[in-house]
């Protein structure tokens, strides 16, 4: 019988603000917001001091400053964040090679069977937190559970600077009293649909009959019930060893509508970008696949000089490939696909090579965290 898994979810608390404070202690305790201050600026990180005012990540900066006019606004220091993130991940890899990087400040660790080396999971977690505090001058929250899903919820519930363990077999009972919005991926619209069925808590969702749920929620119903029960067998590194990540869609009707094709490419590119960031890798190449109404299939590739993992870069390159391909043959399209290839470790000095690529990476990672917490429809990118 396979050993019960022990998964850690490790997340640095208010990372961007904490990183700035690690090099400038005068900022400790101040009302601090990290992000853009221009007319289209958004909050990249809200320190814990400004959160009681209602300030949150991805909020327009103008609104954040109306809520907290005394806050100090600082631009993102991407070179600093990248350096600290690299050191953070190195600490985690001292405990296990099985680390799945989710963003610059967040990762999963498979600590199954490590008791002989580091003691019980709680002891190992306390040691990781000690090293993060002493070596990086930061605090981290750690959730420990048999699955990625429950470990993430556990760390979120104990922020900041907490540890919480959900023992094997206790997952459903732990989740049961929580509101449905605590389940990653359930946003406002999904919660509204569940509310119409009288489902307010994860315990109610876990016990709800699949048939009636399917009529409201569609084919995801069985998976929703499993997740509400704490069932999640997903592998930590399901895509990290892959050399490429792609997504495609076939249209109900062949089309030449360029605006529709552009929107489709952007949606596919953002989905691929999110999956890429979950591997902790960067890509060196973008591919576009077009299948026409006569089933002729064309594939185009572009390999820029600097590796990337941000949505804007993938959308930009894929859209340019679409334009070039349609110039070659402008005919009704039945299938379109976007992929990233030649996955590699992130460039150590990315921000020096191309600051725009670094900005895109940080913004995309921030949006990932918001969607994980509040649902896929909770935030979207505006037009460039």
Structure commentary:
The chain is of the alpha+beta class. It has 4 domains: 100 residues, Alpha-Beta Plaits (2-Layer Sandwich), CATH 3.30.70; 63 residues, MutS, DNA mismatch repair protein, domain I, CATH 3.40.1170; 50 residues, DNA polymerase, domain 1; 131 residues, DNA polymerase, Y-family, little finger domain (Dna Ligase, domain 1, 2-Layer Sandwich), CATH 3.30.1490.100. The chain contains 15 helices and 12 strands. Strands 5-6-1-7-8 form a 5-stranded mixed beta sheet. It has a 4-stranded antiparallel beta sheet with strand order 9-12-10-11. Helix 6 links the parallel strand 7 and strand 8. The N and C termini lie far apart (53 Å).
Write the layout of secondary structure elements.
Elements: E1 7-12, H1 15-23, E2 32-35, E3 43-46, H2 61-67, E4 72-74, H3 78-93, E5 99-103, E6 106-110, H4 115-118, H5 121-136, E7 140-145, H6 148-157, E8 163-165, H7 171-175, H8 188-196, H9 202-207, H10 210-217, H11 221-228, E9 244-255, H12 258-279, E10 285-292, E11 297-302, H13 311-328, E12 333-341, H14 350-353, H15 355-374
Parallel strand pairs: 2-4, 7-8
Antiparallel strand pairs: 1-6, 1-7, 2-3, 5-6, 9-12, 10-11, 10-12
Helix pairs in contact: 3-5, 12-13
